[in-house]
From TrEMBL:
Full protein name: Peptidase A1 domain-containing protein
Domain Saposin B-type, first and last residues per copy: 110-150, 165-206
Record organism: Lactuca sativa (Garden lettuce)
Domain of life, per lineage: Eukaryota
Molecular function, one GO term: aspartic-type endopeptidase activity
Length: 295
């Protein structure tokens, strides 16, 4: 931040610090506040927990374990580093760890969601077409779930169909082929559709954008990070992002995968979702970062 350095060099700041408060309650329409040279005591409660910066330029700190529902996971048994960054909205971490966290909170990848939608909405149609000896290769285009010629179109229900090479189209073809073989094995329609649903459950745990049933938020576990020997908790209402898509509210996991090469990683990024819960002081003079409960 050149403007920060210039302000310090020109002695325009009372203290060589800057602090972040991000409004988690949306009171009065304020999005948040950054203060150069000080801290607003009205925006936090209690004392700040300070940890030293381990990598200059990135506000990188050492982090202890990650806890799920208060229980240690051992993810950071060999040590973890984290960057505190208001420039990212999510909580980013190593791919294998994010997959385990999303599995623990019941996050469902968008591909898995599309697979379930396909089986639940079109399962009976697919069975009927296969039973009528329709070529399996043209069933996905027939139900307008995807198009074999790579075009993109819109189904009669207004949902945009996808090209033959997209993951959703590949899933459609997989389900159709599975059901085709099951019919040849003389299984009943209900049994085949149930087995196809079980096939969707085998889609790997999500590491990218993944969804949560909004009705389940109150039952999801607390996720915590140990920093400076203190546990910093995030409730599901703090690590789940709610969005409005048409008339339907959608809930998305705030945990996303970010694999940093060994030369600089593994690394976590504690973005806005963390900083909304915890008021953050960047102490430039003492090369440390402090966290306190936001008010």
């Amino acid at each position: 931040m050149l403007y920060r350095d210039n302000m310090i060099n020109q002695h325009l700041l009372k203290e060589p610090v800057f602090s972040f408060w991000l409004n988690q309650h949306n009171r009065g329409g304020e999005g948040g506040e950054i203060i150069f040279g000080g801290v607003d005591p009205n925006h936090y409660q209690g004392m700040h927990t300070y940890v030293p910066v381990t990598q200059k330029g990135y506000w990188q700190i050492d982090m202890g374990d990650v806890l799920i529902k208060g229980k240690p996971t051992g993810f950071c048994k060999d040590g973890c580093s984290a960057i505190v960054d208001s420039g990212i909205s999510f909580l980013a971490g190593p791919r294998n760890v994010i997959a385990q966290i999303n599995s623990a909170i019941g996050a469902q990848g968008l591909i898995k969601e599309q697979c379930n939608m396909l089986v639940n909405t079109f399962g009976h149609n697919i069975f009927g077409l296969l039973s009528a000896a329709i070529d399996p290769k043209i069933i996905c285009p027939i139900i307008a779930f995807c198009f074999s010629d790579g075009k993109r179109d819109v189904r009669s229900d207004g949902v945009s169909a996808v090209s033959a090479t997209t993951p959703n189209c590949v899933i459609c073809k997989t389900i159709v082929n599975f059901m085709h073989k099951a019919i040849a094995g003389n299984l009943t329609q209900e049994t085949i559709i149930k087995l196809a649903g079980n096939l969707c459950a085998l889609v790997p745990n999500p590491v990218g954008e993944s969804t949560i049933d909004c009705a389940r938020l109150s039952s999801l576990p607390t996720i915590s990070f140990t920093i400076g020997g203190k546990e910093f908790q995030l409730s599901p209402y703090e690590y789940i992002i709610k969005t409005d898509e048409g008339d339907k509210e959608q809930c998305i996991s705030g945990f996303v995968a970010l694999d940093i090469p060994p030369s600089g990683g593994p690394l976590w990024i504690l973005g806005d979702l963390f900083m909304r819960r915890y008021h953050t002081i960047f102490d430039y003079g003492n090369l440390r970062v402090g966290f306190a409960e936001a008010a």
